[in-house]
């Protein structure tokens, strides 16, 4: 899958702003970002539901519409309700007739973790089971790529775990998965690669460890004790500063140099040094873009 400089605006607001993204076969890729970051619009472009204003989108060398029509791409609908008074098995079997080369129904049930629920009425399933039924209906045509837009929103922890077990079973067959989420842990736990989006742009692309390193690798936290934050961004090694109440968190590439500089400023109170978490990395990466956009706006 390839997005080449894809851009889409709604009115004067850019939702996707010149995105270049290539997803290789067999990868599981998370699009991570806050609400309004451009994730859902990017997925609409991938599926051909929205046409880009500029740039291009291709799936397996075809247009999104062609790839979807050929059954090579599956998308899990979020608002699809189970048909009343039919069983899980019956719904999957009915859907299988719409595809030229469907997977066998027992195989779909196994992949979606629904074997034990196969003969239950679909309209009596739990929320987590309904989500896995939707996933099963996504798989029935044996697509090579599935695209999921915030697939576990609203599920409890147990239902999320069961859903991701089903996704991993599908990906383990050599298939490709692209999913959007605003849950940091979900991206870190389930993706080979995390693409961080903000303001319609890609601000980082790599695995969880690579993202942590790009944000500094280490956090040095100190109490400000009322002294203010002036000069902290200029300290050696510091790549970003976050103030939480009266405590500063400095993402740094050189914790030793940062701590020494703080000591010279007589600014060490309640010192804590720890590895950067994915949350720290996400905040640092998105705050850099916001600072860049603000600077560009002020310069106009």
TrEMBL record:
Task: Indicate yes or no for the key word Metal-binding.
Answer: no
Keywords, alphabetical? Antibiotic resistance, ATP-binding, Nucleotide-binding, Transport
Q: Could you mention a single GO BP entry for this protein?
A: response to antibiotic
Q: Which part of the chain is the ABC transporter domain?
A: 1-224
Q: Does the record carry Ligase as a key word?
A: no
One Gene Ontology CC term in the entry = plasma membrane
Entry's Pfam families? Answer: ABC_tran (PF00005)
Q: Which InterPro entries match?
A: AAA+_ATPase, ABC_transporter-like_ATP-bd, ABC_transporter_ATP-binding, P-loop_NTPase
Compartment list? Cell membrane
What GO molecular functions are on record for this protein? Answer: ATP binding; ATP hydrolysis activity
Describe its membrane topology. Answer: Peripheral membrane protein
Q: What is its main location?
A: membrane
Which range is the signal sequence, renumbered to this chain? Answer: none
Name of this chain's protein: ABC transporter ATP-binding protein
